[in-house]
Write a structure and sequence with these properties.
The protein is α/β, with parallel strands linked by helices. It has helices at residues 4-12, 20-30, 60-70, 80-93, 100-108, 125-140, 163-176, 207-219, 250-255, 260-269, 286-301, 314-319, 327-337, 340-346; strands spanning 40-41, 44-45, 49-54, 75-79, 114-118, 144-149, 177-182, 200-201, 227-231, 234-238, 240-241, 245-249, 272-278, 305-310.
Length: 351
């Protein structure tokens, strides 16, 4: 299913030499049991899944994505936000039957031998029930699962009121998955060469002219003025909307009551998102901060170009809010999204 030598070679072609934990993950991925296989494999004990977790920027997604690309089987990779969105939509549309979730899950998994979930997490009890059943169904079908997460299995659904109800699923993960803890000290996303187009712009007094120029460069024509667009079935007021670039205020995107569904819709329709007029004090609101984290996660996963204008430098302001869950991941991702390597990978160039 996955050949370790091919994974290592693919990484070497990108001038990446795996560290100890990345090598552990590659080894675990090569020992995924094939459908119908159990017990001993050629390289040791086979297992039904691999669970990679640890701090941001340690190379979890890098290794998994590389292995996924060269895996020889019917496969599917999906970001966890996108999976939840699609599954909830299908559940609403599913005709009444004895077990709608099983019907949706079996159809979703039809023909899949290898499934990779990126940014796996469980914070909500309703999602916990859904994902617990889904994993059980997938394993019963012989699907091999690979999960990347910032959370150890025991830290999933951390709310003490509900955690006990998710413990059976945690037990399944611990029993049937190889667990790889990416505990290295180096965040590989930090310290890269800055992108040719600056991504994080401050103060706001200097941002207007910069964003006007950036919009015209990336869209190929000047901004068209205030408008209203439809995202995820709801209206969104914007400063300008083109074919490739959407320019909107932070208030409209993250202070207003939006969800990850809105940000998935934005990422599906536009290649570049400009977020304007972010006052960092707004990030002290837990709801606004959580929406901002979703926005960054989805833009990163979809390889979108993100430009943000704030009243003070953004990344230091976020670092001052270090007590918020998942914030270190966002800071790490923003560092990479502002790099030349990310710019080259997304192939974003002014017209």
């Amino acid at each position: 299913m996955i050949d370790a030598q091919r994974v290592t070679q693919a990484l070497a072609e990108r001038h990446i030499h795996p560290d100890l934990r990345q090598r552990d993950a590659i080894d675990a991925l090569t020992r995924l049991a094939r459908p119908g296989e159990s017990g001993e494999s050629g390289a040791g004990v086979a297992h039904d899944g691999v669970y990679c977790y640890g701090h941001p920027g340690r190379g979890k997604s890098l290794v998994v994505d590389t292995a996924f690309a060269i895996a020889v089987c019917e496969k599917r990779r999906v970001h966890f936000h996108e999976f939840l969105r699609d599954t909830h939509r299908q559940l609403v549309r599913e005709p009444k039957c004895d077990d709608r979730l099983a019907a949706v899950a079996n159809r979703w998994l039809d023909g899949v031998e290898l499934l990779c979930f990126d940014e796996f997490h469980v914070h909500d009890i309703a999602d916990a029930f859904l994902i617990g059943r889904f994993l059980d169904i997938a394993l019963a079908r012989g699907v091999r699962l690979v999960l990347t997460s910032n959370y150890a299995p025991a830290q999933l659904l951390p709310d003490p009121e509900f955690h006990e109800r998710f413990e059976p699923t945690i037990a399944v993960i611990l029993q049937r998955f190889a667990i790889v803890h990416f505990d290295g000290a180096t965040d590989y996303r930090m310290g890269g060469e800055a992108a040719s187009i600056p991504r994080w712009i401050s103060p706001l007094e200097e941002a207007a002219d910069v964003l006007t120029a950036r919009y015209a460069e990336l869209e190929g024509r000047p901004a068209g003025g205030p408008a209203e667009v439809t995202v995820a079935g709801r209206a969104l007021a914007v400063r300008s909307a083109g074919e490739r670039v959407l320019w909107a205020d932070f208030n409209a995107l993250c202070v207003a009551h939006r969800s990850h569904l809105d940000y998935l819709g934005v990422a599906e329709q536009w290649q570049t998102l400009i977020v304007d007029a972010l006052h960092v004090e707004q990030l002290r609101r837990p709801d606004a901060l959580q929406r901002f984290l979703w926005l960054v996660d989805i833009c990163y996963d979809r390889q979108r170009t993100l430009l943000i204008a704030s009243d003070v430098p953004l990344i230091p302001a976020l670092a001052a809010l270090s007590d918020w869950r998942d914030l270190s991941r966002t800071i790490s991702r923003l560092a990479e999204m502002g790099s030349r390597a990310y710019e080259r990978r997304t192939l974003i160039r002014p017209r």
